[in-house]
Amino acid sequence: MPGNPVLLLVGGTGFVGGHLAPALVAAFPRHRRVMLSRGEASARPDWETLEGDLSDAVAMDRIVAELRPEVVIHLAAQASVVSDPNATWVVNCGGTFNLARAVARHVPRGLFFFSSSGEIYGESFNDGPAREDTAPRPMNAYAGSKLAAEAVLRALLPQEWRLVIARAFNHTGPGQDERFVLPSFAAQIARIEAGQIAPRIRVGNLAAERDFLHVKDVVAAYIALLHYEGPERRILVNVASGHVYGISDLLERLRGSARRPFEVEIDPARMRPSDIPCAAGDPSLLKQLVNWTPRHSIQETLDELLDWWRAAVLSGRGEGVSTNH
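Structure for GDP-6-deoxy-D-lyxo-4-hexulose reductase, as requested:
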């Protein structure tokens, strides 16, 4: 689509990107849609793929100079649960710096959407559900690097750019890596049902309470925010359900859907010593701005996740599921 405005999606090969990419095709039908890839299998209908690495400042400058994107959607990240802290800072903060600097150099105005994280609130969750004005008190490299990336974007992007920062809370769904808690439960149940492992599930901290959304509801929120046309040039908003669920309760819901009984075993390696007992987000601002409401119940979310893992285990697709956003 030569001559059409360009939409650049960074992180489209990850978990959320896999669900967001088709929605962007429908939401931006007249844009030339380009997906940045680090060499992953990323072929998707209606998308061009361009190889590039956020940590390569020279490559990012060249790519942005050539494309001159009017819409930039930045999902790419490495989570602390799947990578070492150094790599997390390099990708999440350093990569964002490279992208933002290139955009500021070569494109006078546009829309920049950044997927941040509710984890940035950290210790402040002990004071109750987090609002956008709650003090960030990150407790790990992932949260700290996301908070730093937010500051980078505010500092580097010209005022002519509209900036949307979405602090997404826990979300899950088909395709999420099993190193996250709910896919871990679902994958183990699917393997027990298939007779691949003993009827025993290894778990971490079951006492924690977390705010969960279906990834499709997160995608719907992102699309709505991308189309928001209010007077604010810079928006910071939580993407959360506003409800917390005990991890033990979610496991019991999955047990109720399992086709074979199993035992539960606490695995010390899965325990996180800095766990916050309860982490909840306040979605009031999101609902006010774009009239968004989650459409998927927690039970529907769990059932869909378990069914996906059943199919993945039987087909062998469950190995090496994408770990980035």
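The first strand starts at residue 6 and ends at 10.
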